[in-house]
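Agenda item 2: adenine complex prediction
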Amino acid sequence: MKTGLIGAMREEVLLLKKDIQNLKTKQFGSREFYSGTINDNELVMCLSGWGKVAAASTATTLINHYQVDQLVFIGLAGSVQAHLNIGDIVVANQLIQHDVDLSRLEGFSSVESPFWKTFEFDVFPHSGKKAIQAVDKFILNLRNGEYPNIHSGYNPNVYVGAIGTGDQFIASNEGKVRINERFPQVLCTEMEGAAIAQVGADYQVPCTVIRVISDKADEQAHSSFAKFLFEDISHISVELAKLILS
Ligand code: ADE
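Presented output:
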């Protein structure tokens, strides 16, 4: 099983890169792709950058040039539901492009395009199950004190549900309400997951998205995001990635 692992932030990608054995680096467009193995598990890792186009371009290269068997994205998200707190973990069972709206096009009853009748992508059940198992193992290891680089007070809740994706950093109540009203099932919002899911669906490659809540997508989102980013997130992502690969 060869995994295409996509990260949106340099810190996480560089940290995991240190653990890749037989490392080979290749450039496609403006991105570097790092291939090799971690504990005998084959992977190709890449820093996508932020947003749907960056994520889709990266996923397409991973499929066409490296023939990966699965796509995995681990990163941060803003919660759009009051019960999700900073640090909680969300495993996607559905990925929705919340910013696509073709409903005003004449002749189309709702969101519809020539290739896709929907911009809501279900995660393949097998991938969803594997992701949940990896997160459960992460929580167990965390409680057993196996991660010295992660703050000892970190005790996240884990949720399985829909993740919304759009080309916007949501940082207002109004933005959150817009997502909640159209997609009440969405737990959190980010900028890449459903783009990768669409490419995965195009090529029938399964896709896993796991997000750690960095902010509440409200007026304080920018400052809590920055604080969280520079504390534990790289280590959390790296440990989750290693468990997904194994
Ligand atoms: N990623 C992390 N927080 C986010 C937010 N509030 N909006 C979009 N993407 C995010």
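Discussion summary: The helical segments are 10-17, 52-66, 125-143, 173-182, 193-203, 221-230, 233-245.
Owner for follow-up: CH.
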